[in-house]
Amino acid sequence: YADPVADLLDRWGVFRARLFRESCVFHRGNYVKDLNKLGRDLQKIIIIDNSPASYVFHPDNA
Question: Coiled-coil annotation: which residues (predicted)?
């Protein structure tokens, strides 16, 4: 379900990557996005997700 939403948001092809559950870490019963593992500038990364638990490590990026 995430790809169609991302497609709508990225009409001009600006998104450089899309990461899904396999890119998450399992933490306290939830899959959480750990942006530190990407090795990229966190100021240039956003998280689009419908579950607040998935961005608990980086709420400022959500």
Answer: none
